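Expect chain and fold; thus:
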Amino acid sequence: MQWYEKLNNYFPEHEMKDPGQLQALLEASPYYHKEETEDYLILYAEFPSFLFIDYLLVTSQNRGKGIGSKLLDRFKQKGKMILLEAEPADAEDQDTVKRMNFYLKNGFKKADRIMYTREDGDGETFEMNILYWQPYEEDQSIVMEKMKKACSEIHNFHSHKYYGRTLADPKKALEWKH
């Protein structure tokens, strides 16, 4: 699975799913898809009312050429809310700042009312931001409901088989900020 190596070389280890889980998602989930060209690699789920981008990677030699923005624009044309997760911007890690700026520049908003805590394969917790784009204005409660579905259908897909537990229990991983 050469595509998995590309992802694994780019994304932080704690964000990577087990390769077996990703392969099972691609083979058995009616929602999960992979698109790969020489310029990019994207794994996403398309549900009836929203899209969840699990991994988006533009190859290093093609970054800054508008490829990622064109891909997001193509997804926006479906007229559905788009959700994705991103590491909090950290001035010590310029890649996190660049990623956040990229999504904000492309019209995504940070779900600032939702606290999202994930667990890696070893059970260590880490925080992620939920970013969303919507074709029409909706309350963040809608973002929360759609994110619960993404956790259940994608992150937890056969998670007991690959990790021995639920990775992103929506009742624990997602909560309203006060």
